[in-house]
Amino acid sequence: MISILIFHNLLHIIIPLMIALYFYKSTRGKSFMLMLSAYIIDFDHLLADPVFDSGRCSIGYHPLHSYLAIGAYIMLLYFPKTRLIGIGLLTHILVDISDCFRISFN
Asked: What's the domain count of the chain?
């Protein structure tokens, strides 16, 4: 259980880092930090009871992980000034979706 949590949280860091290093070489530090700032959407977990439940899929459950919010994150990709935030938010959502698949197969 703990190793899955560590792996999940590492993915939230590693994926934006890889994107920054590969696609944004000249601004990799700033790009990485902007994408990493998307982690803030996990604050919506504080609205849930219990705050953490390893058997709960956050997609569609938490407000900032809702389908409407995901649509807004996609729209951020279309504007150069918000693109990195959108990429960070969507990679965060993709990592969380991988947890939903893991939960559904258990």
From this structure: 1
81-102 b/e with 16+ CB inside 10 Å = b? Answer: eeebbbbbbbbbbebbeebeee
End-to-end CA distance of the chain: 12
The residue range of the domain holding 59 is 2-104
**Percent of the chain surpassing pLDDT 70:** 97
Q: What is the pLDDT of residues 79-103, one digit of tens each?
A: 999 999 999 999 999 999 998 888 8
Total H helices, total E strands in the chain: 4, 0
Single-letter code of the amino acid located at 42:
D
